Amino acid sequence: MTDVTWHGDGEVRRNIDLYGQTVREAVKGLALEFAPIIESYAKENAPWTDRTANARQSLYTVVEELSQDVVALYLSHGVYYGIFLEVRYAGNYGIVWQAIEAHLPEITQRLHQLFDR
User: Fold this and answer.
1) pLDDT (tens digit per residue) in 65-87
2) For residues 112, 40, 95 and 28, what is the CA-based torsion angle, rounded to 10 degrees?
């Protein structure tokens, strides 16, 4: 049996770690880029009639790195009754999913561009 000697495994590991870090930063950067776009869309296109404008003004996005493998972009209401706007009346006044769904094709395209190099 012939022994195989591997040289440079430390460099390979460092390069893999560096690549992983680069990917995480790129994905998080993309989420940070889209966060204000999605928030603005939600505020501009919310289908309900404003009474106080609190619900519309309280819509906000957050980008969070949940783990080394997961970056989350949240869109949420800042008022307690936001959940009712989203789900009551068969969801006719919901904006959260609509705002995210409106941008999914572009986000998907940009992610493909990141990884199809």
Assistant:
1) 999 889 999 999 999 999 999 99
2) 40
| 9-16 LR contacts (CB < 8 Å, sep 24+) | none
Q: Angle at Cα 100 formed by Cα 65 and Cα 57, nearest 5°?
A: 90
Distance CA 117, CA 104 (A): 20
Rounded to an integer, what distance in angstroms lies between the CA atom of residue 111 and that of residue 75? 19
Reading the block at residue 17, the tokens are 């770690």
Calculate what percentage of the chain has a pLDDT beyond 70.
97
Query: In the prediction, which pLDDT does 117 show?
Result: 61
Quick check: 65 and 29 in contact, CB under 8 A? Answer: no
SS3 82: helix
